Amino acid sequence: MLAIGVIPVSMYLVITKGEGRLGVTWPLAIMGIFVVLFQILAVQYFVRKYVLEPNKMTFGEWLRWKFSPTEIRKRREERIARSRKMDEWYDGMDRIHERKAQLKEEQSYNLRDEWFQEKGDPDLPTVDSSEESGIVIGEVEE
To answer: What is the DSSP letter of 19?
Structure first.
């Protein structure tokens, strides 16, 4: 709340008393000190709650763990192994997509064989003479 209140109060003081005398700007100094204090307390709280408590460490232990060369090397190797695993997974997905495309192509060839006869133009469908359709191509009925 204080951080939100600093901006309008400071704008009011700057606009109305543009000289910037210490007697006028002392509320801004107090509000600034409170904002800095509350931010420090908030950072301590969040570090304690989300970093130290889940790892069950003190701050010094966590710093030693975080910046230890052996731990850095171990985390780097884990990250490389995780990225290799993801690469293998994506390669597997690529093989699945390739196989799917191949199956679609084979099925389309099978459908073409069923729909089109080998005589004549393979791009044009042929109609059996036994089938009578009411469609006449090229003529317009009025």
So the answer is: T
AA identity, residue 70: T
Backbone angles phi, psi at 12, to 5 degrees: -60, -45
Residue 120 sits at φ, ψ, to 5 deg, of: 75, -155
Asked if 122 contacts 116 with a C-beta cutoff of 8 angstroms, the reply is yes
Tell me how far apart the 2 most distant CA atoms of the chain are, in Å: 106
Token pair for residue 25?
A: 């700007």
Look at the block and give the residue holding tokens 């990250």.
79
pLDDT digits (tens, 9 = 90+) for 79-126: 999 999 988 888 888 888 888 888 888 877 777 677 665 555 556 555
Express each pLDDT in 14-64 by its tens digit.
Answer: 677 655 555 566 777 777 788 888 889 999 999 999 988 988 888 889 888
Identify the residue whose tokens are 């007697």. 23
What is the spatial distance between Cα 97 and Cα 80, in angstroms, rounded to a whole number? 25
